[in-house]
Amino acid sequence: DANSEQPEDTELTSADGYSATEVFGGKSLACLGYTYDDIILLPGHINFGVDEVDLQTRFTRKIALGLPFVSSPMDTVTEHMMAIMMALHGGLGIIHYNMTVEEQAKEVRKVNKYKNGF
Fold first, then answer.
1. How far apart are CA 33 and CA 3, in angstroms?
2. Is 110 exposed, middle or buried (0-12, 13-18, 19+ CB in 10 A)?
3. Dihedral, CA of residue 66, residue 59, residue 108 and residue 98, to nearest 10
4. CB atoms within 10 A of CB 84
5. Considering all CA atoms of the chain, what is the largest pairwise distance in Å, rounded to the nearest integer?
6. Distances from the Cα of 72 to the Cαs of 8, 51, 99, in angstroms?
7. 9 conformational bin, left if phi > 0, alpha if psi -120 to 50, beta if neither
8. pTM above 0.90, yes or no
9. Read out DSSP for the chain?
10. Are 108 and 95 in contact (CB under 8 A)?
């Protein structure tokens, strides 16, 4: 029968993807890494104000981030200026290692010495 091969409406909606809870907190999908190509955000209704949203997260036990953004440790991406800008916006810039140890230390010192308006 041709109709028996057609999925029901409930099957179509459940096969549409995963909820945020399943992706970021569910046992089967939690602790996976995602890129921007892996996630599609669909508009929807929220029952809270945007001022109630908290994006703070932990990078390590001792390092908290204001925003969950970390730049790649690639020589074409992160040197001292990117690390400074990421920090100013609540993220973290990881200095690349495609240079000597002395040059790496110099880049880190530039970031540590930077004072935003002080």
1. 39
2. middle
3. -130
4. 17
5. 76
6. 44, 29, 15
7. alpha
8. no
9. -TGGGSPPHHHHHHTT---HHHHHT-TTTTT----TTT--------SS-GGG----EESSSS-EESSS-EE---TTT-SHHHHHHHHHTT-EE----SS-HHHHHHHHHHHHH--S--
10. yes
CA–CA distance, 101 with 107 (Å, rounded to integer): 10
Token pair, residue 38, equals 């892996």
Find, among 85, 22, 24, the residue nearest to 57 by Cα. Answer: 24
What is the mean pLDDT of each successive set of 10 residues along the chain, which is 118 residues long? 47 56 66 71 82 90 89 90 91 92 94 75
Residue 99: count other Cβ atoms within 10 Å of its Cβ.
14
**pLDDT for position 13:** 44
Q: Which residue has 């990078």 as its token pair? A: 59
Cα–Cα distance measured from residue 79 to residue 73, given in angstroms and rounded to the nearest whole number:
8
State both tokens at 8. 């029901």
